[in-house]
Design a protein that fits this description.
The complex is a heterodimer of chains A (113) and B (112).
Chain A lengths: L8 E5 L4 E6 L7 E8 L6 E6 L4 E2 L4 E4 L5 E6 L8 E9 L14 E6 L1
Parallel strand pairs in A: 1-9
Antiparallel strand pairs in A: 2-7, 3-4, 3-8, 5-6, 6-7, 8-9
Chain B lengths: L4 E3 L2 E4 L5 E6 L6 E7 L6 E7 L2 E5 L7 E4 L6 E5 L8 E8 L6 E2 L3 E5 L1
The chains are: A mainly beta (113), B mainly beta (112).
């Protein structure tokens, strides 16, 4: 699986957009970009995933560059409850594979009041 | 709540004892995964089931570890002769086919 690079930590003011970057320059054509977050003492929570096109759901938006070498997770209006470690993961999509998730160290996002 | 359920949430045991954890996946999810997470690190993959078949095991899964999913529903992870280095959070996830994995809140194991 391709490796990802994320900043160790970021701060964001409550109510503002949080933009979390991720570099995945060695991503393969069949690999999706997944984002999970982990709030202290809880299991990872799925946020969003995408292959080529930008994606949006009720939690966040995912912007993937045209060359697919980087992406940005956008939380449009961050709240204190969004404080968590955010993981960017690339994983193959081929049917039948285990698609185990390879987590890095993630980005600690702290939303400030 | 219909999420992934893990029991117990916390387990404290003496070194050398055996421990068993249980994971109840989301209903009808045919894939089940076990991960381990140590302090300050991201989760690491241990093993994967599709229905009752264990299809993949990580090198992290030593011979003291065994996982089962006898009827393709719940799963158990057993650690025999526990060691200090086994102290970690053990996470279970489930998914349907190629859909995203959904995690439980884990079992935190502390070895005295």
């Amino acid at each position: 699986d391709a490796k990802t690079t994320q900043p160790t930590s970021m701060d964001c003011a409550e109510g503002r957009a949080a933009n979390l970057p991720c570099n995945h320059s060695t991503i393969s054509g069949n690999e999706y970009v997944y984002w999970y977050r982990q709030i202290h003492s809880q299991g990872p929570q799925y946020i969003i995933h995408g292959l080529k096109n930008n994606e949006t759901n009720e939690m966040a938006s995912l912007i993937i560059t045209e060359d697919r070498k980087s992406s940005t997770l956008i939380l449009p209006h961050a709240t204190l409850r969004d404080t968590a470690v955010y993981y960017c993961i690339v994983s193959p999509s081929s049917s039948g594979s285990a698609r185990q998730l390879t987590f890095g160290s993630g980005t600690q996002l702290t939303v400030l009041p | 709540d219909t999420g992934v359920s893990q029991n117990p949430r916390h387990k404290i045991t003496k070194r050398g004892q055996n421990v068993t954890f249980r994971c109840d996946p989301i209903s009808e999810h045919n894939r089940l995964y076990w991960y381990r997470q140590t302090l300050g690190q991201g989760p690491e993959f241990l093993t994967y089931f599709q229905n009752e078949a264990q299809l993949e095991k990580s090198r992290l899964l030593s011979d003291r570890f065994s996982a089962e999913r006898p009827k393709g529903s719940f799963s158990t992870l057993e650690i025999q002769r526990t060691e200090q280095g086994d102290s970690a959070m053990y996470l279970c996830a489930s998914s349907l086919a190629d859909q995203p994995q959904h995690f439980g809140d884990g079992t935190r194991l502390s070895i005295l």
